[in-house]
Design brief:
- The complex is a heterodimer of chains A (114) and B (116).
- Chain A is mainly β.
- Helices cover 0% and strands 53% of the residues of chain A.
- Chain A has no helices and eleven strands.
- In chain B, a hairpin with a 2-residue loop joins strand 6 and strand 7.
- Chain B is globular, with a radius of gyration of 14 Å.
- The chains are: A mainly beta (114), B mainly beta (116).
């Protein structure tokens, strides 16, 4: 079974621009979560989508948004980029079956804001 | 607020020298505790899920255990290829007994280096 895929793998943007990142979950997984990873803050939860609905959101400003499509693929968007948005953005998918809520991560998108 | 603290921050071992990593957590209600391994430039790789105190899971040279306040990742006779950052995360039971959808709270990780 193919794993979680994320595109693009690397991005360089300048302050004030916006960016869209894409995530394709493991086949059959309906939940997609997004995380930001930085050296200072570690891994922090952004939001979670299930059946095209955002069910949970972390403590990030409204510049961070996302959506999920009917095939469970997900995108996240960051508008008006700031230098502090430079990070590794990780997507994780989960099948959400009973006790088994393990999340499986993609390779991430490395975003650099100049 | 859920909190996860991992210690030590970094651990250097000689090949074959067994040790343990610690993960202390504070959560209103534990839905699950997860261990991941992360190599540089890659996403975290799932290792174990533990759901209740007393539970143990094993995989090759790794063994994870869980108590009501902490979890340990024991590494037996490590090899250089075990070098990585090991991350611990918790998922809390949400309001009204539901799952806190999708949200894992991570510790800062332990950087493990195994020298040949």
């Amino acid at each position: 079974k193919a794993g979680v895929t994320q595109t693009p793998r690397y991005l360089i943007k300048t302050r004030g621009q916006q960016v869209t990142l894409s995530c394709s979950p493991i086949s059959g997984h309906r939940s997609v979560s997004w995380y930001q990873q930085t050296p200072g803050q570690g891994l922090q939860f952004l939001f979670e989508y299930f059946s095209e609905t955002q069910r949970n959101k972390g403590n990030f400003p409204g510049r961070f948004s996302g959506r999920q499509f009917s095939n469970s693929r997900s995108e996240m968007n960051v508008s008006t980029l700031e230098l502090g948005d430079s990070a590794l953005y990780l997507c994780a998918s989960s099948s959400l079956g009973g006790r088994y809520n393990e999340q499986f991560f993609g390779p991430g998108t490395r975003l650099t804001v100049l | 607020e859920d909190q996860v603290t991992q210690s030590p921050e970094a651990l250097r071992l000689q090949e074959g020298e067994s040790s343990s990593l610690n993960c202390s957590y504070t959560v209103s209600g534990l839905r699950g505790l997860f261990w991941y391994r992360q190599d540089p430039g890659k996403g975290p790789e799932f290792l174990f899920t533990l759901y209740s105190a007393g539970e143990e899971k094993e995989k090759e040279r790794l063994k994870a255990t869980l108590t009501k306040k902490e979890s340990f990742l024991h590494i037996t006779a490590p090899k250089p290829e075990d070098s990585a950052t090991y991350l611990c995360a918790v998922q809390a039971v949400g309001n009204a007994g539901g799952t806190s959808y999708g949200k894992l709270t991570f510790g800062q990780g332990t950087i493990l280096t195994v020298h040949p």
